[in-house]
Specification:
The protein has helices at residues 3-17, 22-29, 33-40, 49-58, 63-67. The protein is mostly helical and 77 residues long. The longest helix has 15 residues, at 3-17.
Length: 77
């Protein structure tokens, strides 16, 4: 799995698990709609660490908790 795929899948899973919407993610993190949708649709080539920090914080997680998932094992960068 590629890194961007893993990010998009992880975010989608967390949104579903916490019963939150993409709209709420966009509004509460102040990320652009385009940035969030690019990640979610695996179209983004590079994602800034600061963006991932904002997303992890939105879910009430540290970065280590966010990345503590099988999706990030053996990924292609």
């Amino acid at each position: 799995m590629k890194l961007v795929e893993a990010l998009g899948t992880r975010i989608a899973d967390l949104l579903k698990a916490q019963n939150k919407s993409q709209y709420r993610l966009i509004k509460e993190t102040y990320l652009s709609k385009n940035a969030v949708l690019s990640i979610m649709r695996n179209r983004s080539k590079d994602v800034k660490l600061s963006t991932i920090c904002l997303i992890a914080e939105f879910f009430g997680m540290s970065l280590s908790e966010f990345f503590d998932c099988d999706y990030f094992k053996n990924i292609d960068i």
